Sequence to fold (134 residues):
Amino acid sequence: MTKTNRTVNNLYFLYDLMFLFPFFSGGFPEYVCIGFCVLLICILITHINKNKFILLNLNLQSMSIVIFTAAYLIALPFAVDWGAALVGFFKFLPLLPFMLIIMQISPEAKHNLLLTVPFAGAVLTVFGAHMYFF
Fold:
């Protein structure tokens, strides 16, 4: 078994996380974002401790995620509503550890992982339409 296969097996439960987290409390509220971020950081630390390395792909997408997250943080002192700006930063923050975790898996696993997004969206739409009548 190669290191890539071990990494995919160690991070296999990301499929479940990507599918389940949008359903907590009917969307993606702030406290779910913070919990998701903490969980992703724990997954990343576990991965680093097991494999003793981390892959970093510096490209336009990864740099834009870092810049956008930093921009949310830099905008805090200039915001009219400081609390709402901080909440916006925390809603965007899980993207950083998620990006680092995605960099650790193979391209096939990335593709399969991202296939869960439209399925989760469809299920959430059907569930939301059903709950409209109650």
